[in-house]
Amino acid sequence: MRNTTLRRHSATSRQPPARSRLHPRPNRTATPADPPADPPTDSAHRLRPPTPRSRRRPPGRALAAVRPAGPSRRARDRIPRWRRVACDPTEANGTGRRTASSRVPSPGRGSRSHRDDSTAQFAAEAVDGPAVDEWEAVGHRSSQPSSHRPGRQSPPRRVRRKRPRRKESSVSRAVLVTGASRGIGRAIAHAFAERGDRVALHYGSRTEAAEAAFAALPGDGHVLVRGDLSTPDGAAELVETVSTGLGAVDVLVNNAAANEPHPIADTSYADWQAAWRRILDVNLLGAAHVSHLAARLMIERGAGGRIVNIGSRGAHRGEPDHPAYGASKAALHALGQSLAVALAPHGIAVASVAPGFVETERVADRLTDEVRGQSPFGRVAAPEEIAAAVLWLASPEAIWASGTVLDLNGASHLR
Ligand SMILES: NC(=O)c1ccc[n+]([C@@H]2O[C@H](COP(=O)([O-])OP(=O)(O)OC[C@H]3O[C@@H](n4cnc5c(N)ncnc54)[C@H](OP(=O)(O)O)[C@@H]3O)[C@@H](O)[C@H]2O)c1
Questions:
Q1: What pTM was computed for the model?
Q2: Bias category Basic residues: which stretches (predicted)?
Q3: Domain 172-408 belongs to what architecture?
């Protein structure tokens, strides 16, 4: 019997998605469309220091002749050949582009849709590395390197390869966040939606909380999915429902987890077994099954993708009263590292975060002064701080962090 339910987002009064923190920096360089700068006032003229003799323009000569487009021939001869190529993209192959793009998997293998932006982006960086952000390209395009200015002798800056690309926030990805009815999962779902992605907000049993989290998502195209992750069938139904609802899975965040105390000295053998089973079924096997199914969809589509696991500091520090939980998180970290290696050839990056205590409903009664004092900051994390790291790990720029286990514990546990 299917126990997965799906609900679509009613987006009547949604605001357009806000710009993410990774959004390109504003271009401060003047463009041809910019109005000319105000002419300096007389007082400004008076206050301006005199131009040094060496930089004065000879009478009758145009400014362009004094400030050439590149270094002078003599200066250029002093630059090593490899630096000159790096400075001048047109010297690389005559077009300014690398020829490796022929090895990029075709995004056209999957169904074509507005998601092809993310398809092309993930696929291209799998071979070439991440594209240059718009702000970087604009910066280089519109200003001369400082070494090209007369009178400066510093070595030329390396100009990174440019590839035309839409702004980050205009690429809408299909993102599945498991266990997002509250706490960290809810903050992660919100962060992706705020960036402009379409989110499948999954939950297990707290329908009311999940509906409230769903209603608070900014943007459009989201789906609310209920499903039990403790069984292989439940995981399969979840991924199938999300794939149908969003059309794809570009990013998977394995966040859902179960936890309950079972200190070894006070727990009967029967209760011990039951606790281990319940916890591993969700935290490890549920994440493994959803990862398998989502990764197979990503591979089939040929678009690359991202998997981010929500692990725990407890994997490294120990969980005396919750040993199955600590073990499940250590296993989840290891699973992420194995998948990072196995899935890299498909352009899929896999990473984990290992938070210390986070201010969520689940652990609210455990957040004592002693716990807050574990960090030299004297506090625990906010869910949004975990979400920001997950957002980055799922970004095109973070592909090289694949395989990492990122500590997010406010220096409460250094390893
Ligand atoms: N809070 C912390 O201090 C902390 C520290 C380190 C790591 N973490 C990790 O961060 C993640 C989120 O933590 P949190 O504190 O936000 O947890 P939480 O509030 O308890 O949320 C857990 C989520 O998992 C879902 N879930 C649990 N069992 C499920 C099942 N069998 N099937 C489907 N969904 C299930 C829950 O759904 P329902 O509520 O709808 O049942 C809920 O949405 C977890 O992986 C946790 O281990 C948390």
A1: 0.69
A2: 1-11, 73-84, 149-166
A3: 3-Layer(aba) Sandwich (3.40)
